[in-house]
Amino acid sequence: MDEAKQSAPVQKEDVPAIRLAHITKRFGSVVANDDVSLSVRHGEILSVLGENGSGKTTLMNIIAGIYYPDHGQVFVDGKEVVIRSPKDAFRYQIGMVHQHFKLVDVFSATENIVLGLEDEGRFSLRKAAKRVREISEQYGFDLDPDKKIYEMSVSEKQTVEIIKVLYRGADILILDEPTAVLTPQETEKLFTILRRMRDSGKAIIIITHKLHEVLSLSDEVAVLCKGKYVGTVQTAETNESALTEMMVGKKVTLDIDRSEPKDPVDRLTVEDITCRNREGTELLRHVSFTARSGEILGIAGIAGSGQRELLEAIAGLQHVNGKILYHNPKTGQVDDLRDKSPLEIRELGVRLSFVPEDRLGMGLVGNMDIVDNIMLRSYKKGKSVFLERKNPRSLAEKIIKDLEVATPSANTPVRRLSGGNVQKVLVGREIAASPTVLMAAYPVRGLDINASFTIYNLLNQQKENGVAVIFVGEDLDVLLALCDRIMVISSGSISGIVDARTATKEEVGLLMTKNSADAYAHTAAEGGDA
Amino acid sequence: MAQTQTTKEPLFHIAKRDSIVWWKAWGIRTAAILIALIVSGLVSFLLTKENPLRIYATMIDGAFGTKRRIWGLVQELAMLLCVSLAVTPAFKMRFWNIGAEGQVLIGGLASAACMILFGESIPSPLLLLIMIIASVAAGAIWALIPAFFRANWQTNETLFTLMMNYIAIQLVSFFVYKWSVPKGSGQVGVINRTSHAGWLPSLGGHDYLLNIIIVLLITVAMYVYLKYSKQGYEITVVGESENTARYIGIPVKKVILRTMLISGAVCGMAGLLLIAGTDHTISRDSAGGRGFTAIMVSWLAKFNPVYMILTSFLIVFLEKGATEISTAFGLNASFSEIITGIIIFFIIGCEFFIQYTVKFREKEAAK
User: Residue B18 is nearest to which of A28, A88, A366, comparing CB atoms?
Assistant: First the structure.
């Protein structure tokens, strides 16, 4: 393992660092990868682009030894290899940074980095820390080797993951959607480091579905579509719309129609709410805002800044201090929803729909079929002790038809559906309740472009019907294109509310990290994880 | 890197099936039972030098050989099924009620107490009514205690219900000693031997028929309750995801309490059927481990009450047959347990092959 580390990568220029030939992988009847071939050279960054479910992660997991392909070969430096486990992958100097971090919270950075390594001789944590520091300096990471994971921000945790694979001598790096959890500023910093690694001769594969990142970072782009390999293009010779076309297989317009709000009135006023977790740490601090009818209010912020608590507080799932006032359009009454259960809220005549972030863990029940999931909102109707499945069934069939849910039947368990179709069922159900307030947390996360646009259109329709829409998003481009106003949340407090028609990405990005320094003191004790 | 290892593709790897046609699934199950029979035949031949076919014949004879044996089998099946039905709503709610043993026992204790204390003074129909109320209530209370603590303070229900078993056993021991006939013998003996006060009446001359009918009714009721009632739906939602239940506004605490109440009540009923309908006596072994076997029955049937008839039949058949082997061939009881163990191992194990498929290395494709 050691002597290979020093081998000069420059001489290998023309032999691909890693080459995949005709890789096929099936899960049951689903073909995740169908005859995929691609290659990366040393000193090159390859983006693997594709919609969700196109097989990017499966492909990378094959390289990293987590899955074993049904057919096809893998070549490292021109030699055919068999990678049966992550250990094998490390032996061929392949390191993967997963989308979900795999770190031990109570360990320090160094301890996590050396975890599982079998070194010869006596192990010295001090020596390891020194090596970690060297790697950090070499590539320009900013990391304290002795800091505990629970004290770290998301981007620091990612740094630990990257250094972990470098420490093991990885020469071929795979990053699975590394920017999903980062602010624009952090993303830029990461890209600088990745470019530096490329220049030092590493081969880098990055999975992403953000087109502008592909264009700014990579040398080549390999595009997958529904498990099939579409082709590889030079980044310099392509553009966003050409890539989208390759990805989706047809031309799509990337514009979101945004109408002017029609006579907006205040629908939901949140006044000074504060929320603590069990340890007493404040997750929301003095949050106040108003959502108006016929308007989409966007909520931007780094993941885990209190978005979830905010929406759950409004939906009656989280205890808070303060006031949540609902202006009933029918009766003209104003009700305080604070600390009311979802049932009590519904009994007040408040038509509040909520598309939670955790679709299968909260919004739906994975093992139940579509009909039973549609029934969740309405099963209690009527006096009978028995369930009435006729109306839910026809509603389910209507949703399947209207939203083009791809499913064998209405009796299919929702966990069998793909992410986009799961979301269509959930959003369809929530909209069917003809809400006056619709809250959606990351409704397009993990969805492909077509499904995303279906959701945007649904939200827009609701807005035009006079619904007060609250949209928590992560892609700033989308937030800026879809919303009327954007509220930025940073470490549990509102750092600003901007007009989405005039604001810029940089402005919002800055607000996302604003006063995070003093907020850090609050979250540090709690681990930064909400 | 210079390792020129001759690493080959692994010999086989395991992949999840996303669905399986019903006949394939049943084919796998049938194959599993056949293999189980072959293996246990081999084992018994090696251990006892007896002809395996004769052993199996003896098993079948032990279960179905005489009219009396068939009645015994069906009665035993009904008792096990009753306890299995009782634990099912709790399991569906992902509430690990392993306290059915205690809940049955305490229900049985309640009916025995009624029989002993009021047997002389209260007319039989009224006595039976009191016994039903007492035993159902006792079982329900025994289940509600852990449910209450779990619902309010998130205590571990597995440990709690398990501990409640021991309390029930000790309580029964205490009363058995107190009521023992003759005093100090440590045995209650047949209660109301002559008056038959508090005994479940026999229908058409069959002692167990009433038990069996009652359990059948409970089976149908439980099936309908779980599948078609709003409460059954709530149980499923709470079991699958408490978060979803909260999100939708299902009162989780209430559902936990209500479901355990039902679970305990049916256990109490099973206790009544055992004491008043079958044994007419009580001892600390009255529940006979059914509270634990029921867990297996319920899981094997994937919580479907109708399938549970099949799975409890299987278990009871094996028990009866295996006991017969031990006596017929003069082997000790452990031998029959070995056979039962082998067969159950294969039956449970085959579910893996229904969920997953094994892919073997393909022959090197010619290039």
Answer: A28
Count how many pairs of residues, chain A against chain B, have C-beta atoms within 8 Å: 97
Quick check: A222 and A427 in contact, CB under 8 A?
Answer: no
Name the residue range of residue B260's domain.
Answer: 83-307
Query: In sequence order, which residues have a C-beta less than 8 Å from that of residue B186 and are 6 or more positions away?
Result: B176, B177, B180
Question: Distance between terminal CA atoms of chain B?
Answer: 26
Q: What is the mean pLDDT of residues A117-132?
A: 81
Unique residue bearing structure tokens 């000693």 = B177
Chain B residues closer than 8 Å to A343 by CB:
249, 251
Question: Cβ contact (<8 Å) for A342 and B16?
Answer: no
Report the length, in residues, of chain B: 367
The highest-level CATH class for domain A255-351+434-530 is alpha beta
The pLDDT tens digits of the residues spanning A206-265 come to 988 778 888 889 999 999 888 888 888 898 888 888 888 888 776 666 677 888 888 889
Cite the DSSP H helix spans in A358-436: 370-374, 390-402, 419-432
Query: Average pLDDT in the B149-164 region?
Result: 93
Q: How many structural domains does chain B have?
A: 1
Domain residue spans of chain A? 2-6+15-102+162-248, 255-351+434-530, 366-433
Strands A71-76 and A18-27: antiparallel
Q: Is the fold of A2-6+15-102+162-248 the same as that of A255-351+434-530?
A: yes
Specify the amino acid at residue A375: M
Q: Which helix H or strand E contains B223, and what residues bound it?
A: helix B209-228
pLDDT at B240 (0 to 100): 92
What ipTM was reported for this prediction?
0.81
Query: A2-6+15-102+162-248 has which fold?
Result: Rossmann fold (3.40.50)
Which site among B4, B16, B248, B362 would you substitute to test the A interface, given the most A Cβ atoms closer than 10 Å to its Cβ?
B248
Higher pLDDT, A155 or A269: A269
